[in-house]
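DM from R.C. (forwarded with permission)

"hey, sorry to bug you on a friday — could you get me a structure for this? deadline for the figure draft is monday and I only need the backbone to look sensible"
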Amino acid sequence: MNLRKTLLVCLMLAAGGAHAQPAADAKLCASTANNPDLAIKHCTAAIDSRTFAGAALAALHFSRGVEWASKGEPDRAIADFEASLKLKPNDAVAHHARAIEFSVKGDYTRAIADFDAAIKIDPKAVGVNFARGRTRFYMNEHALAANDIEAEFKVRPNIYTALWMYLVRKRAGAGDAEVLLERETRRLRAGWPSAVVVLYMGSTNIESVTIAASDPDPARQRELRCDADFFIAHWHLMKNENARAAGLLREVQSTCPRNSLEYEGAVAELRRLK
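My reply, with the result:
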């Protein structure tokens, strides 16, 4: 979720008549990149200044909530998204964001309610069907999960979405999951994570996926390794090799970004394994 530019414009406009320091804090709240602690510091200063109200204050809470989510603190993130929604109740993006944090906490009922609210406000909201489908997958509601993820795939075909559809279908016991995965990704397979698709279709092995997930850039390597560990863990789960899967899922939980789909999914699968 990257709404910093939108938030920044909103906050700068709102801060035009404000004192210099609150305006500066508001700007840095929305524009400080890759430093959640510093962004939270500026967001908090801007909020506590009591300079902002309405949509501008909602944007500050939203921005701080995003930073709390990136630090893996869902309770604090939810508190900020709730403050934002009190000020701007018809914000589909805030409902979506809060739903994801509820899902990370395992509060799936409240997550689904927020996803439903987001879709009601904006039926074309980007990524909400996909996110609701993942949560329904964690709830073992496989038919509903498949409907949601397939709806997302039809609008925005993506190899990652196709892989999640495959996971849902396999968990539901669909006999044609591999055939559908091959067909749906035929035109999307270029580079990573096509090696995972080939693994799931039974045409390669784990070592090949690990090799494909290598990159000389450390940041990109971490991202690829996060993907690889997550999807290989599911390969083990599909073979009922739960101990091996759990080890990889714990690695994902400890090393992947706290606001990534892989972290969210690893937490849910570890919860399910217990």
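R.C.: lifesaver. Residues 1-5 have pLDDT under 50 and may be disordered.
me: no worries. The first helix runs from residue 4 to 14.
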